[in-house]
């Protein structure tokens, strides 16, 4: 019985093994069958899948950020416009040409950008057999012996181009040239990067036709392009800057810089001033698209990584309402001044209004009269940029810095008295104030603009010893002392404004004793209108040199609206340096400046004594030599007078500072106008009148326009 059981167990074990072997065999059979299907049926597909690459990510540009003024008015915007683009997804030359021929039937594109070389290249494409006949067999053989393959092909092609005649080029029809213009636009782009084919004057019909036929136009697309628009016309255009167009792309000299920052070669970038200075902010976050290609460069799949976002917005410090009013004032007074005698060389004027406590540039205005070479007519052009790029002798406006330098060096003290009478240095003309003032202290010297007081201060700074009609021994290090002190106010150095290409002015190279005296009254070195604004702001705020700023805030963009988005970054005021002062120093200069406008003996009293906002300031008149656009007409530069004015208000709690420069105001030493103080008075009036109007409008919850209309109605009622 026991023996039978053992036999049964022995029979069961082989059966189980056989079953296991069968299962294993069945599984292997399925695996082999699956491998066969993969290799035979799907092998090519998987091979292509393995060979494909995912190494090309394209950044598609987005509209730039907007610019607003300090009150939220749009200054620079983007105007949408229809556009037709082409993206080369690995098409061959013949394929691109075929698409260009189809597209030419749907749109009109002027061949005005087609060059002779383009025509020759196209002629060769159209006539390959005739092109080949341009080079003989003997020439082919000779070139093959002399050159490597690459150089040989290039030389053959060059010979073909050279031997195409004008008659042969004339064979190209208008239709051919249009196709060529489209093909040229296709070829000028880069692989997988959208290239603008047409974005000017794209009609609705063209846009619709192309959109309906995209399936027959591989690589072509319809989209919305944009261009910069300016709500206030040419106002501030020179400062706002320019943007390259789609044909220009990135400037060659900056190509490496931008390519390293994920730009495409045909991207539009800021190429001057605010547009360039804030390019990193304005250009936006590009849409990223990953193009998956095979080894042949054909796109297999396109994947959108990120949608992108237009550039961030800038809030400028400029008040456009005030800017427009000040520009109008400059234009009116510049034209009025031109009616005075000897003003043939007068062609420009500048005004800068600045918050002395924050550095905000509220107004940055410049106007220039330019003669049109074709018509001969004179037109007024924006020259706001001249406030930072051009410099002039500005005269007595710098005397506040001279007095403070005298205090700092110990040359004078508050209350120091000098006798104002003409000075005569050996072998030089007599130097004097515009009249003899007798005994004069520092405050009166500013009030009446005494040159002699400044001369004697400069002599003391240079440890000089003055004797009538004798040589003036002086330590020439005084030039450096005065210039270094002036620089602490912003004179003769970059102000630090957030704009490129700021001028520093001209420093006279010679260090003769007499020139030191001219330096002390602003008639040797030159300064920009912006430097004058920073200088007078430093005095107005009590000794802090504030960095001027044109951009106040960076804001997040809000799509499809002109409203301001949330603040991303606020540009805070920056104090560049603090003037070293003792008690009474700045107070005396403040009082001197106040008396210039509010004391009967003050040089600006006639224009400012009745101003309700209690101004302070300093006038300037500088003898200079003309160096403007008409310089070539003269054997020797004519002697001219530059007029200037700096000021602030209210004098006891300044909220606005101003600089006015009217270069080459008239020829000779006596003129027939005082445009500097007239412009200064009218500009400050405009500031405080606008402030008053806004406060009243806010009080009555009305707009400025409504308030102005109400004021006009009130005036009319009173007249009746």
TrEMBL record:
<protein>
    <recommendedName>
        <fullName>serine-type D-Ala-D-Ala carboxypeptidase</fullName>
        <ecNumber>3.4.16.4</ecNumber>
    </recommendedName>
</protein>
<feature type="transmembrane region" description="Helical">
    <location>
        <begin position="20"/>
        <end position="42"/>
    </location>
</feature>
<dbReference type="GO" id="GO:0071555">
    <property type="term" value="P:cell wall organization"/>
</dbReference>
<dbReference type="GO" id="GO:0005886">
    <property type="term" value="C:plasma membrane"/>
</dbReference>
<dbReference type="GO" id="GO:0008360">
    <property type="term" value="P:regulation of cell shape"/>
</dbReference>
<dbReference type="Pfam" id="PF00905">
    <property type="entry name" value="Transpeptidase"/>
</dbReference>
<feature type="compositionally biased region" description="Acidic residues">
    <location>
        <begin position="708"/>
        <end position="720"/>
    </location>
</feature>
<keyword id="KW-0961">Cell wall biogenesis/degradation</keyword>
<comment type="pathway">
    <text>Cell wall biogenesis; peptidoglycan biosynthesis.</text>
</comment>
<dbReference type="InterPro" id="IPR012338">
    <property type="entry name" value="Beta-lactam/transpept-like"/>
</dbReference>
<dbReference type="InterPro" id="IPR050515">
    <property type="entry name" value="Beta-lactam/transpept"/>
</dbReference>
<keyword id="KW-0573">Peptidoglycan synthesis</keyword>
<feature type="domain" description="Penicillin-binding protein transpeptidase">
    <location>
        <begin position="350"/>
        <end position="679"/>
    </location>
</feature>
<dbReference type="GO" id="GO:0008658">
    <property type="term" value="F:penicillin binding"/>
</dbReference>
<comment type="similarity">
    <text>Belongs to the transpeptidase family.</text>
</comment>
<dbReference type="InterPro" id="IPR005311">
    <property type="entry name" value="PBP_dimer"/>
</dbReference>
<feature type="domain" description="Penicillin-binding protein dimerisation">
    <location>
        <begin position="61"/>
        <end position="302"/>
    </location>
</feature>
<dbReference type="GO" id="GO:0071972">
    <property type="term" value="F:peptidoglycan L,D-transpeptidase activity"/>
</dbReference>
<keyword id="KW-0812">Transmembrane</keyword>
<dbReference type="GO" id="GO:0009252">
    <property type="term" value="P:peptidoglycan biosynthetic process"/>
</dbReference>
<feature type="region of interest" description="Disordered">
    <location>
        <begin position="699"/>
        <end position="720"/>
    </location>
</feature>
<dbReference type="GO" id="GO:0009002">
    <property type="term" value="F:serine-type D-Ala-D-Ala carboxypeptidase activity"/>
</dbReference>
<keyword id="KW-1133">Transmembrane helix</keyword>
<dbReference type="Pfam" id="PF03717">
    <property type="entry name" value="PBP_dimer"/>
</dbReference>
<keyword id="KW-0472">Membrane</keyword>
<dbReference type="InterPro" id="IPR001460">
    <property type="entry name" value="PCN-bd_Tpept"/>
</dbReference>
<dbReference type="InterPro" id="IPR036138">
    <property type="entry name" value="PBP_dimer_sf"/>
</dbReference>
<keyword id="KW-1003">Cell membrane</keyword>
<keyword id="KW-0133">Cell shape</keyword>
């Amino acid at each position: 019985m026991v023996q039978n059981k053992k036999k049964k167990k022995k029979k069961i074990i082989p059966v189980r093994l056989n079953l296991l072997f069968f299962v294993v065999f069945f599984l292997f059979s399925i695996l082999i069958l699956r491998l066969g299907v993969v290799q035979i049926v799907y092998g090519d597909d998987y091979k292509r899948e393995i060979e494909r690459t995912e190494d090309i990510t394209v950044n598609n540009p987005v509209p730039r950020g907007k610019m607003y003024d300090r009150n939220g008015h749009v200054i620079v915007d983007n105007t949408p416009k229809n556009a037709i683009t082409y993206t080369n997804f690995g098409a061959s030359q013949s394929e691109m040409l075929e698409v260009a021929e189809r597209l030419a039937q749907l749109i009109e594109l002027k061949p005005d950008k087609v060059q002779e070389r383009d025509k020759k290249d196209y002629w060769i494409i159209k006539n390959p057999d005739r092109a080949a006949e341009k080079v003989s067999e003997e020439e082919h053989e000779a070139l093959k012996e002399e050159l490597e393959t690459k150089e040989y092909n290039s030389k053959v092609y060059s010979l073909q181009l050279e031997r195409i005649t004008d008659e042969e080029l004339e064979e190209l029809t208008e239709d051919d040239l249009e196709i060529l213009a489209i093909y040229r636009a296709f070829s000028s782009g880069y692989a997988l990067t959208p290239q603008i084919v047409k974005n000017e004057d794209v009609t609705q019909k063209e846009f619709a036709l192309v959109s309906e036929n995209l399936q027959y136009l591989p690589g072509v697309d319809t989209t919305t392009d944009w261009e910069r628009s300016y709500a206030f016309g040419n106002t501030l255009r020179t400062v706002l800057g320019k943007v390259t167009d789609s044909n220009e792309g990135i400037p060659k000299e900056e190509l490496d810089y931008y390519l390293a920052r994920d730009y495409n070669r045909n991207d539009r970038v800021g190429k001057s001033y605010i547009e360039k200075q804030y390019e990193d902010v304005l250009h936006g976050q590009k849409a990223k698209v990953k193009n998956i290609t095979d080894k042949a460069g054909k796109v297999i799949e396109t994947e959108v990584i990120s949608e992108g976002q237009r550039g961030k917005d800038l809030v400028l410090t400029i008040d456009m309402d005030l800017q427009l009013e000040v520009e109008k004032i400059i234009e009116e007074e510049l034209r009025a001044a031109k009616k005075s005698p000897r003003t043939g060389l007068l062609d420009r004027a500048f005004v800068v209004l600045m918050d002395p406590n924050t550095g905000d540039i509220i107004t940055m205005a410049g106007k220039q009269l330019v003669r049109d070479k074709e018509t001969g007519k004179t037109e007024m052009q924006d020259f706001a940029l001249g406030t930072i790029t051009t410099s002039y002798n500005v005269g007595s406006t710098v005397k506040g810095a001279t007095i403070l330098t005298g205090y700092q060096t110990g040359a004078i003290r508050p209350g120091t008295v000098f006798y104002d009478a003409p000075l005569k240095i050996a072998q030089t003309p007599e130097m004097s104030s515009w009249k003899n003032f007798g005994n004069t202290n520092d405050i009166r010297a500013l009030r009446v603009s005494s040159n002699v007081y400044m001369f004697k201060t400069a002599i003391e700074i240079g440890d000089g010893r003055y004797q009538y009609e004798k040589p003036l021994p002086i330590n020439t290090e005084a030039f450096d002392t005065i210039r270094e002190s002036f620089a602490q106010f912003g004179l003769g150095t970059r102000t630090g404004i957030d704009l490129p290409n700021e001028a520093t002015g001209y420093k006279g190279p010679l260090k003769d004793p007499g020139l030191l005296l001219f330096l002390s009254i602003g008639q040797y070195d030159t300064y920009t209108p912006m430097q004058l604004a920073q200088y007078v702001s430093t005095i107005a705020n009590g000794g802090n040199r504030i960095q001027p700023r044109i951009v106040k805030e960076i804001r997040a963009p809000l799509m499809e609206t002109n409203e301001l988005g949330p603040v991303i970054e606020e540009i805070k005021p920056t104090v560049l340096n603090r003037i070293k002062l003792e008690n009474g120093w700045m107070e005396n200069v403040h009082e001197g400046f106040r008396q210039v406008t509010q004391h009967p003996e003050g040089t600006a009293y006639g224009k400012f004594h009745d101003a309700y906002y209690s101004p302070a300031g300093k006038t300037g008149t500088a003898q200079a030599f003309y160096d403007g656009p008409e310089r070539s007409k003269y054997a020797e530069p004519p002697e001219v007078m530059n007029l200037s004015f700096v000021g602030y208000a209210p004098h006891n709690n300044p909220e606005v500072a101003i600089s006015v420069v009217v270069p080459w105001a008239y020829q000779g030493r006596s003129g027939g106008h005082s445009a500097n103080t007239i412009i200064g008075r009218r500009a400050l009036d405009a500031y405080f009148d606008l402030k008053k109007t806004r406060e009243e409008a806010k009080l009555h919850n009305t707009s400025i326009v409504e308030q102005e209309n109400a004021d006009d109605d009130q005036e009319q009622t009173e007249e009746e």
